[in-house]
Amino acid sequence: MDKFVTRHRKRSVVEASDEWKSEEPTKKCKEDECKVEEEFSQPIPWQKLEAEGLDCDYSLLFDKDEADHLFNQLEEEVVYFTGDKAKVQVYGKSYSVPRKQATYGDEGLMYSFSGVHLLAKPWTPTLERIRDAVTKATGHTFNFVLINRYKDGHDHIGEHRDDERELDPACPIASVSLGAARDFIFRHKDARTGSSKHQIEPVKLQLAHGSLLLMNFPTNTYWYHSLPVRKKVKTARINLTFRRIVKNRQKTGIKME
Length: 257
Fold this sequence. Notes:
Elements: H1 13-21, E1 47-51, E2 54-60, H2 64-77, E3 87-90, E4 93-96, E5 100-105, E6 110-113, E7 116-119, H3 125-138, E8 144-150, E9 157-160, E10 173-179, E11 182-188, H4 189-193, E12 203-207, E13 211-215, H5 219-222, E14 223-227, E15 237-243
Antiparallel strand pairs: 1-2, 2-13, 3-4, 5-8, 6-7, 8-15, 9-14, 10-13, 10-15, 11-12, 11-14
C-alpha cells in the first residue's frame, strides 16, 4: 500500500480551537455553492491522508454509545429503495445493487448515477442530527445524503468515483460509517489502466464504527474507491455519504415519482 502522509491533531479542544482561529477565515460562497464556516465550530482529532492527487481527512465523530444509538435509530427510520430503483445500468444491462440504498435531503433534489435517478426523501430526525454533527465538525453544509446498508461482508460496492456533474466540486464528500468496520480502498485511475509510467500503489484504511472520512478535492478526480467483499464480516454496516448538490446542474426532463 502507498505510504500516505498522516498528521495527527491529538490536541485538547482549547488547543485545537486556537489553531483554527489562527488561520485565515474561509470566504463565504455564493448561493447554491458550498457554504463554509469561518472555522470548525467543533474541533476533533483529525488524521490527514495524502497521496498523489489524494486528499482526505479521517476522524472518529461519535463515541461507541452514540454510534450504537444512531445505528439503531437509522434501522427504524430509513426506507430503502426496491424494484428498479435498486438496480443499476452497466453497459446497457440491468444489475441488482449488492447492498441496500436510500436517498434523503432537501426537497426536490435528485441524484443520478449508473442509469438510475434517485429522488431525495425528506430528512428524518436522526439524519438531521448526523448531518448537523458533520457540519459542526467540518464547517461544510450538505443538502443531500446517499445511504448504503451492507447486511454483512458479502454486500459490497465496486470501484467508482463520486464525480457526478450535479455535485458541488468545492465541497468534500463526508462519509459517516456506523456498524461493522470495513476495509475501504482507494486506487489511482492510472493504476487501473496499467498505462502509468510510474507505479501508484493503492491506499487502504479501515472505516470504524462512528467514523467520518472527508474526501476533499481533487480526490475524486484521480482516485477510485471501493468497499470490497469481506466474508468474515458477519454484521451490518450503514454508510452515509453527505454531499452538496447544485440544483441548476441536475439533469432535466426526468420524471420525479
